[in-house]
Design brief:
By secondary structure, this protein is of the alpha/beta class. It folds into 2 domains: about 1-200 and about 390-410, 3-Layer(aba) Sandwich (Rossmann fold), CATH 3.40.50; about 215-380, 3-Layer(aba) Sandwich (Rossmann fold). About 50% of the residues lie in helices and about 10% in strands. A 6-stranded parallel sheet has the order 2-1-3-4-5-6, sandwiched between helices. Strands 9-8-7-10-11-12 form a 6-stranded parallel sheet, sandwiched between helices. It is globular, with a radius of gyration of 22 Å.
Length: about 400
């Protein structure tokens, strides 16, 4: 099996790499393919050409954002995708492999090749978002109204994009969804339930766990030991409406002065976005964390994590936090409710400042719930995301959906 992701970083990339690692530990033969592994296996000249094309592509993206015109973007995307398509075709040929595709957009692989390869080898998609079901966007969120999405031209391109993706959906052998929510979306698009398996993403418990003494973690992040520390994590633009930081900011404004004194908000995000945070929102800012061990320290330094997403699959910040014994307040949309044991390891709220502030107030006033919820979060995570169980389920899903499971039964 070849597990394919554009990168091993970001939510989908990290999940893909964790699956490759977990399957290897179970002695399931697999190869992880991303940009970094691809470049390692080519000659110096090819590496330099690839680096040059990547640089051209980055310049094109900057020019596009500044002017609205794309100079050579499609050309550089085509070179990059052709390179990866050739590498993957060779790997699949040599291994008679199953392809397990995770995050493969942004010019990594072309739509034509995706359609073609699905006729040559079994392809199983692991759906980390709804990109494959929407035109031009990862998530379709009706409550977010952007001016350019209202134009007739945008809607035409979105519809064409959606149609090209639906051809891929129809050709795929099957789908693995981390959440029941995306599994249900697939069925509404005409995918037979027999081609879908729900397997939550695996969490490395050797990395995410509660520390016996949280004091050093609080000191590491320089947060108060006398206040309730509330965290928010974003791997993308801090003010991305989908992530919902604006909900937290508006809820903060509804707190009384005495309630604000009880809490300290800690925001993890890209440093370049710090200037976008309103001055009246008092918070401590931590630059983006890419190291899982330091991320575990963060979860141990805070008392609550808030995940106010307007749309999400199975947010890994929520699953990681609970694995580290940190309770979660999370929105009631998408796959978010599937990440908690309601009122025990976390609480749900509607995606409005009023709903969030009501849930937050009740939580701050109940110190006993916070204490018990830390243990409940840990216990729930070990039951819900047991590595051995999930890895076995993932392997079975791949074999069943690809048809290899049936072949093995016939041979036996």
């Amino acid at each position: 099996m070849i597990i394919v992701s554009k990168s091993r970083y970001g939510g989908a990339g990290r999940a893909a790499f964790r699956w490759a690692t977990a399957l290897s530990l179970r002695n399931v033969k697999n190869e992880f393919y991303d940009e970094s592994t691809a470049v390692e296996n080519i000659g110096l000249l090819q590496r330099r050409v690839y680096a040059l094309v990547k640089l051209i592509n980055r310049i094109c993206l900057v020019v596009t954002r500044l002017t609205g015109h794309t100079p050579f973007g499609p050309f550089s995307f085509a070179i990059i995708s052709t390179f990866h398509e050739q590498q993957l075709a060779l790997l699949a040929d040599n291994n008679s492999a199953i392809l397990n595709l995770h995050w493969v957009n942004s010019g990594f692989l072309s739509r034509n090749w995706m359609n073609h390869i699905q006729r040559e080898v079994p392809v199983i998609w692991t759906m980390h978002d709804t990109w494959l079901l929407n035109g031009l966007v990862h998530y379709e969120i009706p409550s977010i109204k952007l001016w350019f999405r209202q134009s007739r031209l945008y809607r035409i391109f979105a519809r064409l994009d959606e149609r090209s993706k639906m051809k891929i959906v129809l050709e795929a052998k099957g789908f693995i969804s981390p959440s029941q929510w995306i599994a249900e979306l697939l069925t509404t698009r005409g995918v037979d339930p027999s081609r879908i398996r729900v397997v939550p993403n695996v969490i490395p418990f050797e990395v995410f766990y509660p520390t016996p003494d949280r004091g050093p973690c609080k000191e590491f992040f320089e947060v108060s030991k006398n206040k309730t520390i509330i965290g928010f994590v974003s791997g993308s633009d801090l003010l991305d409406k989908r992530k919902g930081l604006d909900i937290i900011i508006d809820a903060y404004r509804l707190l009384s002065p005495s309630e604000k004194d009880m809490v300290q908000f800690v925001i993890v995000g890209r440093t370049k976005d710090l200037s976008k945070v309103p001055a009246d929102f008092k918070c401590k800012f931590v630059s983006q964390i890419s190291n899982d061990s330091i991320m575990n320290r963060f979860y141990n330094a805070i008392d609550l994590l808030i995940v106010p997403s307007r749309a999400d699959n199975l947010p890994q910040t929520a699953t990681e936090a609970q694995s580290a014994g940190c309770p979660v307040l999370i929105s009631n949309l998408g796959g978010c409710p599937e990440t908690i044991l309601e009122n025990q390891s976390g609480k749900l709220f509607e995606v409005t400042p009023t709903s969030l502030v009501l849930v937050l107030r009740s939580t701050l006033l109940d110190s006993e719930w916070l204490r018990v919820a830390r243990n409940e979060s840990f216990e729930f995570s070990r039951r819900a995301w047991n590595t051995e169980m999930l890895t076995k389920n993932y392997e079975s899903a791949i074999l069943e959906l690809s048809g290899y499971g049936e072949k093995n039964q016939e041979q036996s």
